[in-house]
């Protein structure tokens, strides 16, 4: 296994992107002003700034109304809501101001059209093309199906790909939330970069010779199709699973995982909410498919997947467990674990200019993928919130012209995580204690 590098890896591209990022207005988890489609229904929605919401507890209190926070600034947040939801929040004492579209605020334009991004079908075609071009490096398999019957595909990338070798495995998941199409582009970038550079780039070659990489380009294909393929974006977040007894559609897949599900006010029990957690943990078929795949990587009693990134947009953040509690340590998360998460998360953020922090520093979430991956499977799991930092960069729908720049921006982070997949504790100098053969 590779030894810990001295110094941090930097690239000209990363430095240039960081400079650009610092020039943008700072914020986290933002959204562009959306076209028709609302949380839980199909009514018209828009973006609102909510004043006086500045701390993690204040943000958590807002999310406990069933509201999904899209962007968090130093003294306010941005949400997406329809008129009825906005009035309900005003009735609870929140001060809301409707925002105009980013282009009207003289900022970067939103994507010109849904065609700026690969469709679900085009994504599967790109996977098939990579498999045909690089049969010794790439294989794919259908690991299950969505509520509407679409294939959920896992792609394996490794030297000697046909053999299940005893090597550390790294999983990258994308598109849990339907409208976050840039994350699918991230999957296709990683697939293209690892395959095209194998045998040419010494680092990538060494990593693929000693690691197995898994990509799931779209965890939520039904939601992706619904959000993208009507001719205009719908700002849809959840899956497309009906809810018994309600006209509202969908479950928030990233509140549906089976660790501390529904425990702590970090999700909603209302089907109309964007953060609806479902009727039970893994009640959404897409969550169950990915969870079953991960559980299936336990071989001989040992989980083969050691590290994971779940890609989202947006906010330019690197987040780690736990999300369900403000505490730095909790059952199943020791001080050494927390130190390793922080050190590795900071190292990843050093490569792309994102902000590193524990997930609950934003607000409490429960039933999230990172918490489950770590607490249930012992996988060092991170969430990346990709470009932009705020709605001024296009929110969930940044222009297609930034796709290449913002996916390649994470190249070094991907390689860094692959490097540490043999032993994340190596980053705090405790590999002998935790990873000795």
TrEMBL record:
Obligatory cofactor(s): Zn(2+)
Signal peptide: 1-32
SUPFAM superfamilies reported for this sequence: Zn-dependent exopeptidases (SSF53187)
A Pfam family annotated for this UniProt entry: Peptidase_M14
SMART domains: Zn_pept (SM00631)
Record key words, sorted: Hydrolase, Metal-binding, Metalloprotease, Protease, Signal, Zinc
Active-site residues per Swiss-Prot or TrEMBL entry: 385 (proton donor/acceptor)
Residue span of region Disordered: 230-251
Peptidase M14 domain ranges (all copies): 116-421
Highest taxon in the source lineage: Bacteria
Similarity remark: Belongs to the peptidase M14 family.
Cited PANTHER family: PROTEASE FAMILY M14 CARBOXYPEPTIDASE A,B, SLL0236 PROTEIN
Protein name: M14 family metallopeptidase
């Amino acid at each position: 296994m590779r030894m810990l590098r001295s110094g941090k890896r930097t690239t000209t591209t990363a430095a240039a992107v960081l400079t650009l990022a610092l020039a943008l207005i700072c914020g986290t988890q933002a959204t562009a002003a959306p076209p028709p489609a609302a949380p839980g229904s199909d009514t018209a929605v828009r973006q609102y700034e909510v004043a006086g919401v500045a701390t993690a507890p204040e943000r958590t209190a807002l999310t406990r109304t069933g509201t999904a926070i899209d962007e968090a600034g130093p003294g306010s947040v941005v949400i997406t809501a329809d008129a009825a939801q906005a009035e309900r929040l005003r009735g609870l004492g929140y001060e809301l101001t409707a925002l105009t579209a980013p282009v009207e605020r003289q900022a970067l334009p939103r994507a010109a059209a849904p065609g700026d991004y690969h469709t679900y079908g085009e994504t599967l075609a790109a996977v098939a093309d990579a498999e045909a071009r690089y049969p010794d490096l790439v294989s794919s398999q259908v690991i299950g199906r969505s509520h509407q019957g679409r294939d959920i595909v896992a792609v394996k990338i490794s030297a000697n790909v046909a053999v299940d070798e005893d090597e550390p495995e790294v999983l990258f998941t994308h598109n849990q939330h339907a409208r976050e199409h840039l994350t699918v582009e991230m999957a296709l970038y990683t697939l293209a970069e690892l395959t095209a550079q194998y045998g040419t780039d010494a680092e990538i070659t060494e990593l693929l010779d000693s690691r197995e990489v898994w990509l799931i380009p779209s965890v939520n294909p039904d939601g992706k199709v619904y959000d993208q393929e009507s001719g205009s974006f719908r700002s849809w977040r959840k899956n497309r699973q009906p809810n018994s007894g309600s006209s509202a559609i969908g479950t928030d897949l990233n509140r549906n995982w089976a660790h501390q599900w529904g425990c702590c006010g970090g999700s909603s029990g209302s089907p109309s909410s964007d953060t609806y957690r479902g009727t039970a943990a893994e009640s959404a078929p897409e969550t169950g498919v990915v969870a079953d795949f991960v559980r299936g990587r336990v071989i001989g009693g040992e989980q083969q997947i050691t590290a994971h990134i779940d890609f989202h947009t947006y906010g330019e953040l690197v987040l780690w467990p736990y999300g369900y509690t403000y505490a730095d340590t909790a059952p199943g998360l020791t001080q050494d674990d927390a130190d390793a998460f922080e050190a590795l998360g900071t190292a990843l953020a050093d490569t792309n200019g994102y902000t590193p922090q524990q997930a609950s520093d934003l607000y409490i979430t429960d039933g999230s993928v990172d918490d489950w991956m770590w607490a249930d499977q012992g996988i060092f799991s991170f969430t990346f919130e990709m470009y932009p930092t705020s709605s001024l960069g296009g929110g969930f729908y940044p222009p297609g012209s930034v796709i290449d720049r913002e996916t390649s921006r994470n190249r070094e982070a991907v390689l860094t995580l692959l490097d540490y997949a043999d032993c994340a504790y190596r980053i705090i100098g405790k590999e002998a204690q935790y990873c000795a053969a």
